[in-house]
Amino acid sequence: MSEQLQLRRGTAASVATFTPAQGELAVDTTYYKLYVGDGATAGGWSVAMAQRRALAASGTTILGTDRIIAHTTLSGAVTDTLPAASAFPVGERLLVIDESGSCSTTNTITVQRAGSDTIGGGVTSIAVNVPYGFLALESNGSNAWTVTDSFLAAQAPHGASMQFAVLEITSGALSGALVTLSNVVPANCIVFSVGAYVTTTITGATSYSVGWNGPGGSSSTFGSGLSLPAGSANYGLIGPTANYSLANLTLTPAGGNFTAGAVRLSIHLAFCNPSSS
Fold this sequence. Notes:
Jelly Rolls; Mtd_N; Seminal Fluid Protein  PDC-109 (Domain B); 1 helix; 6-stranded mixed β-sheet; mainly beta; 23 strands; 3 domains
């Protein structure tokens, strides 16, 4: 004979007014959350659960039971639609994140509202547009979402935002008189520096330089006479430079051609996004 175990259960409102005994469990049938009692606290204590849903190159309509929306691959722009704020538990965090590292100003993840809800004080959507970018939100249980953490430094009510990003690119095996990394600096950003770190000792040259074809660019914009041994690093600081088009980075050897080695470049930049409504 089969047996079935059922726990105390009820709507979110009814569970909130019930005081479970110490160690007693109660199920919220509105949001499907589990609570454990201490014998004194009305509603008990929420048992933490993180419901992660992985998405491959697609957007989704987020469910009230989702807690993490993880984009594991991206090949174009996608849109995630939030559940109604009234259908998401108050105090629970929802995280939308790029786990692929392919998010960009082209491969964006747009998080948009449901119905007439608002996000972050008045906007209807927020776009994640940097590698490994993320957006964390909480619902007020009624009609609005608050951004609790994100890649954004600041955002205004009509979508204007300020964001900072660091993009890392590895050169691969160095060879020849010039190595070009094409279209790695995003358009419509302010560039502060391009750092360089030698991951594999460089041979064939006596030093090298890092440059670009962006505004005021040269073969040594971000440094020249740089060291070759693995572990060598350079900050590559410049005066903040507005860059309006996709730009290339270049590695140029001095004293001979590259015969081996590899460099990891880090692009430090900011986006100043205008209002979207």
